[in-house]
Amino acid sequence: MWITKKMNHKNLMNLMYLPALFLFSVFVIYPFFMGLKISFTNWNGFSQKYNWVGLSNFIMMFTDKNMLRAFFNTLLYGLCSTLFQQVLGLGYAVFLNQNFKGRTFARIMIYLPVLIAPVIMGYMWYLLFQYNYGALNDILVALGLEKLDWLANGDRAVWIIVGVNTLQFVGISMVIYLAGLQGISAIYYEAADIDGASKWNQFCHVTLPLLVPAIITSVTLNLIGGLKLFDVIKALTNGGPGYSSHSISTLIDYTYFKNQSAGYASAMGILLFVLILLASLMLQSYFKSKEVEY
Q1: What local confidence, expressed as pLDDT, does residue 196 receive?
Q2: How many angstroms separate the first and last alpha carbons of the chain?
Q3: Of the candidates 128, 89, 35, 57, which has an alpha carbon nearest to the alpha carbon of residue 225?
Q4: The pTM is what?
Q5: HEC readout, the chain
Q6: CB contact at 8 A, 197 and 210
Q7: Over the stretch 145-158, which tens digit does the pLDDT of each residue have?
Q8: What confidence score (pLDDT) does residue 265 get?
Q9: Which residue of 33, 202, 241, 252 shows the fewest CB atoms closer than 10 Å?
Q10: The dihedral of CA 251, 166, 119, 240: what is its sign?
Q11: What is the per-residue pLDDT across 143-193, written as a single tens digit (0 to 9) for each?
């Protein structure tokens, strides 16, 4: 009787998952498989008819110079933004984990950009970098120097986007690493002091190994965010000049709505999904092997 009641209670609790499962199916699973289906067609995005083209869209991606540039940029946005965010975020966390006056205010100021919508942040930075009336060029003119068209060069625009994305979301890494640092017992550092370890050795051989769970979380979140970067690029350069600063996400938008090539855009979306999935799985596998018990 008691076992039966317990099983019935468990079954009722499982029913609570149904609304979330329904929403996930409608807004994630169904669109994914529809996108996969469309990626094998030449659909233009609005016609009632479309033709099956097989793997043509996927083959085209490997010969499309604009797509290859966007793929390279996507890797750059993902990897470089993630690297810079980890270095800065960990540095901020170590510094702000100390007990000093004003550290709460400093934490708030570093995390504050995370709360701003990326598209708004992009337009705010655009006011800094624009050629006419941009703050940076006003400073250059005041110093007697020539104006610089910051976003007119594709390579420079890509690195500016990396920097903007890094500065906006470094607060996430800082918070994650702060939580990890505060979870490390002081006993380990006391033992290291007794053994005569320097502060740098303590950081390398005590702090970093015990921060692996935090590193996994931070790197995964930052990498996924960097690989699917969209809003900041749209606000700052709209993928220009030409196609030189497009990510795969912004190129998908351009291909779908400007070129009216929904089938090709869907194929790009599938590639981006596979890229993010593989990157996440490899990161999880690598860092899990480095994790230590404490």
Answers
A1: 83
A2: 42
A3: 89
A4: 0.88
A5: CHHHHHHHHHHHHHHCCHHHHHHHHHHHHHHHHHHHHHCCECCCCCCCCCCECCCHHHHHHCCCHHHHHHHHHHHHHHHHHHHHHHHHHHHHHHHHCCCCCCHHHHHHHHHHHHHCCHHHHHHHHHHHHCCCCCHHHHHHHHCCCCCCCCCCCHHHHHHHHHHHHHHHHHHHHHHHHHHHHHCCCHHHHHHHHHCCCCHHHHHHHHHHHHCHHHHHHHHHHHHHHHHCCCHHHHHHCCCCCCCCCCCHHHHHHHHHHCCCCHHHHHHHHHHHHHHHHHHHHHHHHHHHHHCCCC
A6: no
A7: 888 889 988 899 99
A8: 94
A9: 33
A10: negative
A11: 888 888 899 888 999 999 999 999 999 999 999 999 999 988 888 888 888
Name which of 55, 39, 48, 31 is nearest 252 in CA terms: 39
Q: Find all residues with CB under 8 Å of 264, minimum gap 6, and list them.
A: 57, 60, 255
Provide the residue count of the chain: 294
Average of per-residue pLDDT across 258-275 = 93
98 pLDDT exceeds 90? no
Residue ranges per structural domain of the chain: 63-290
Residue 124 structure tokens = 């705010």
Q: In CATH, what class is 63-290?
A: mainly alpha
Tokens of 117: 């919508």
The alpha carbon of residue 255 and the mean position of all alpha carbons in its chain are separated, in whole angstroms, by 22
Q: Is the pLDDT of residue 260 over 80?
A: yes
Scan for tokens 């110093």, then name that residue: 143
**Quick one: average pLDDT of 258-287?**
90
Residue 226 CB contacts under 8 Å (≥ 6 apart), including other chains = 77, 78, 79, 80, 81, 82, 165
Question: Is 133 exposed, middle or buried (CB count within 10 Å of its CB: 0-12, 13-18, 19+)?
Answer: exposed
Query: What whole-number distance in Å separates Cα of residue 91 and Cα of residue 226?
Result: 20
